[in-house]
Amino acid sequence: MLAMIGEQFYYGDEICGAVVNVRATYEKISLWTKNAAFEDVQLSIGREWKKILDYNETIGYIFHDDAKKLGRGATNRYTVSLIGFNERSAFLSFFGA
Question: Keywords for this entry (predicted)?
Answer without folding.
Answer: Cytoplasm, Initiation factor, Nucleus, Protein biosynthesis, RNA-binding, Translation regulation
